[in-house]
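protien #1 (seq + structre)
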Amino acid sequence: MKHTALLALSAGAFVLALVAAPVASTAQPAPAPTMVPIAKPDFSSMMFLTGTWTCSQMLRGKTRPDTNTTTIGMNGMWMVSQDAAPPFDQYRTVTVNSTNYTGYDSTIKQWVAIGVDDGGGYGIQSSPGWQGNVITWTGKGLDGSTFVDVVTKNSDTKTTDQNTVTDPQGKVTKSTITCMKAS
């Protein structure tokens, strides 16, 4: 009986050793994933926009100033513009800050601009690109509003933006924004 118990105990220990022992495998480990290279946008036609600009437009009978600083960011994938429009009349009593990201969507062959501000405003526009010294941006808001921005490069240090917004009721608001490069 001792031999049977010892034999059973030895067999159990052997089975346990087999289960606990690492199994040798001839399979190769899975290769590490390879990053798929994504082509960065060619910003060469827009590089003159980098730097700091002072802009103005007429709004409610007064000149509305703002400062815009543009850099290339996010690993070269986006042109990032930070804009600050300080208070300028009794209706605007706080600075409005906004950020605009401009990039290129190669699947639709369009430039895209995505903007947000600290007042809850947002928008997305697209453009086929520069036609001479003019680039036209168009967009449609989720509320049904439409907008068209026609930006003219007057020189490497001056732009003029003809902006037209049509609200869902059909009311059209036009403005002209002139910007001069400060640095």
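ok now protien #2
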Amino acid sequence: MKYKRVLLKLSGESLAGGRKEGFSVEVLESYARQIKEAADKGVQIGIVVGGGNIFRGIQGTGKGFDRVRGDQMGMLATIINSLALQSALIDVGTKAKVLTSIGMEPVGERFSKDNALEYLEAGYVVIIGGGTSNPYFTTDSASALRGIEIEAEVLLKGTRVDGVYTADPEKDPKATKFDTLSFDEVYARGLKIMDLTAFTLCRENNLPILVFDMDTPGNLGKILNGDKVGTIIKN
């Protein structure tokens, strides 16, 4: 396998499938089977899931919620998604642990680098919920932070598109896909891949980002095998 340890970032919206909110059982099962296939081959997998299918903190500020309170609600949404993914993984026969950035026993154990690495080495898929535990930070930032902490070799950003394009491929039919980009090129072109905090964390800590289409079954396995899938951003 090309990678021994990875951090997989999944959006909350992706778990909803074609729905605007909630969960798609089909998507959860598809993701779980892809992750199981990778874990069965010995790849250590950490996962951070967003919460946009349930509640997004910054949207709450337009509905009368204080930003800090809204972000805290968003953190809880990511933990609900983490539990849903854990259940799907266990259902397909994969060991999975939920660790939380805020104390929530018995929902999940409190995250620390040491216990995350201990579970990864023991063959568990480790799902880290609760974001960074701080308001004003996105789950992109949480995925970058956790990827660095668990010493992942790459941050795999699962999206609905198959990589990074010169423009939005859903709006511009002339948009072309990049196979490889440097962090500096992304800054120069103003490409929106992750929020700047997350992106800078990855750049400064030399954590490559690979953007790919998680909704196409088999893509995760192809990446781990070293096939050219998606777009990789590195120093």
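The chain has one domain: 5-234.
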